[in-house]
Amino acid sequence: MSTENAVTRADLNRAFWRYFWSFQISWNYERMQALGFCYAIEPVLRRLNPDPADYSTALKRHLQFFNTSPFIGGPLVLGAAVAMEEAGAKSSAHSLKVALMGPLAGVGDTITFALYNSIIFTIGASWALQGSIFGPIFTAVMVLVPYFAVRRWQFVWAYQQGSKLAARLATGALTRLTEGATVLGLIVLGGFIPSIVKIVTTLTYRQQVDVQGTSTVQEIKVQEQLDAVLPFLLPVLVTAGTYLLIKKFRLKLVWIISIVAAIGLLLGWLGWFAPALPEVPK
Amino acid sequence: MLVAILLTLLSIACIYDALGPNLIFANRPLIGGTLAGLIVGQPVLGMAIGATLELTALGVYTYGGATIPDYQTGAIVGTALAASTTAPLSEQVALGLGVGLPAALLLAALDPIGRFLPAFWLHRADRYADEGNARGIALMHWTAFTPWAAVRAIPTFLAAWAASTGVVQKITQSIPEGFTTGMALAGSLLPAVGFGLLLTVMPLRQYWYLPILGYVLFAYLKVPLFGIALFGLAIAGMYMALRKREETADVH
Questions:
Q1: Which of A175, A194, A213 is the last residue of a domain?
Q2: How many folded domains does chain A comprise?
Q3: A149: nearest CA in chain B?
Q4: Do residues A165 and A226 share a domain?
Q5: pLDDT score, position A124
Q6: Which residues on chain A are in Cβ contact (under 8 Å) with B186?
Q7: Is there a single domain that holds both residue A262 and residue A175?
Q8: Which backbone phi and psi does B248 adopt, to 5 degrees?
């Protein structure tokens, strides 16, 4: 390959920024992120294919089905594909995309959405509910900075690794990261469930008690009895219930949300349960 | 009318951020609601509705292109309608949730349209690729966003416009007290759905003891959420270091 066809720094940056500002805006069921990927890598293809026929073939090659995590995966595959196109390994550029997109989609979605975002947004929303403007500001900053850095770094790193990328990914670092994130996520979930899911019962019952021979009727709060068994018993039970609905009965999410909302509305309306017990004036 | 147009633009900006740069994850109801609150001049209300909806949407993300409730548009619509009333904040939030949550669920029915239609733009791009026309491809890519934006912008505009006519104010006067307390409980129960969903995607069988750690920290030791997250980070770091040592030991 002649040197005048080498990818310039400007080409690389254009590819990255095109990915960054618009990767999924043309997402569709048919080929998902294909058009976004083709658009991002186009400046590189133009540089490498002075012949119009080659250029057209290259464009069509990158218009094939593609879908992966836009955060951990997208920039990685883009960087590596640029490097392989530059090395003239056209068919491996395509097979690399196919090989990496599935596994990276799974790892990427789990780390970014299920773990990192869930933690950040739970903390942010709970601060916001206390009336603190730092809630949304916290989430905005915690999203803006790390997600930009991780995407830029991945793209540059994958471009430098090129054909060695697949081998480097197999060393287990990615698996370790996923497992570490899972450990963090599960610990945090254990704390989030009792603090975010709020339900107490306002039900009471009357009981006859003998105090020094005289029998009196005492009102017993059911919630106090439950707290004696296990603190936050009801939130834990409700979460276990939704877990079972999703896992065992495989109901659609929209239905589960509707069911829980309807039950909450009903129980709250009846006044048997509430998010918290009313403050007792001292 | 100006407010309705600004809210419509916000709904477009939110979905653009989600598909494009993801600068601040504007498609999360916490952000969408807060921004809508700023537009209608009641930031505290927008933030409260957004945060309530956010907690009902925890862990609910678009995995692999699946349709989920359209929470951000729900937050914008809920904030717009609640802001047009003159009730106390707790009633406004209950109304915002009462409108925003069903709106989010119903709008999920429109989402597949937005995901299906750009395929026509894609086919046009195929032809431009044949011709080697990069400008045509760029144009198709950027304009394929239109269906995505339209399925959110149109309902938002209609709702915001309805809010400006004062219709909602009349409805709220007839809202029974039970609805307010009921929606408050529904809002505080819904996070359980997101947590249930997260538990199903994680290897709970293998690590069943880890959530107990977090539970004990909160329920018995009263550690705040941020403290639990830091504790989890430390344990995760230790775990990864141990795994690395194990793996390098295997090699030798």
A1: A194
A2: 2
A3: B23
A4: no
A5: 94
A6: 260-265, 268
A7: no
A8: -70, -30
Q: Name the residue facing B122 among A35, A236, A262 (closest C-beta).
A: A35
Query: Which chain A residue's Cα is nearest to B35?
Result: A136
Please state the rounded mean pLDDT for residues B80-100: 88
Mean pLDDT of all residues in A50-61: 94
Do A81 and A26 belong together in one domain? yes
Cβ neighbours of A183 in B, within 8 Å: 207, 210, 232, 235-236, 239
Average pLDDT over residues B157-185: 81
Tell me whether residue A42 is in a domain: yes
Q: With a cut of 80, say whether residue A271 has pLDDT above it.
A: yes
Higher-pLDDT residue of B163, A60: A60
Instruction: Select from A14, A24, A25 the residue whose CB has the most chain B CBs within 10 Å, as the one to mutate to test that interface.
Output: A25
- For residue A1, the model assigns a pLDDT of 45
**The domain containing residue A55 runs over which residues?**
3-194
Is position A280 within any domain? no
Domain ranges across chain B: 2-202, 203-252
pLDDT by residue (tens digit) across A15-43? 999 999 999 999 999 999 999 999 999 99
Closest chain A residue by Cα to residue B124: A35
Contacts of B130 in chain A (CB under 8 A): 56, 60
A47 and A88 inside one domain: yes
- In a shared domain, residues A113 and A204: no
Q: How far apart are CA A185 and CA B211, in angstroms?
A: 9
Q: Does pLDDT of A2 surpass 50?
A: no
Mean pLDDT score across all residues of chain B: 90
Shortest distance, CA B120 to any CA of chain A (angstroms): 9
Q: Give B108-154 pLDDT, tens digit per residue.
A: 889 999 999 999 999 999 999 999 999 999 999 999 999 999 999 99
Are B234 and B228 spatial neighbours (Cβ–Cβ below 8 Å)?
Answer: no
- Other residues' Cβ atoms within 10 Å of the Cβ of residue B17: 19
Whether residue A119 is contained in a domain is answered as yes
Residues of A in contact with B131 (CB under 8 A): 56
Same domain, A130 and A215: no
pLDDT of residue A179: 87
CA angle B223, B224, B230 (to 5 degrees): 85
For A192-222, the pLDDT digits (tens) are 999 889 899 988 888 887 777 777 888 888 8
Q: How far is A3 from chain B (nearest CA, A)?
A: 23
> Alpha helix locations (H) across chain B?
2-19, 29-40, 43-56, 71-83, 89-107, 111-116, 118-131, 134-143, 145-164, 167-173, 177-189, 191-201, 210-219, 225-251
Contact list, A247 vs chain B (CB under 8 Å) = 196, 200
Of the residues A174, A194, A214, which one is the last residue of a structural domain? A194
- Rounded to whole angstroms, what are the CA distances from A116 to A113, A130, B46, B58, B186? 6, 22, 24, 11, 26
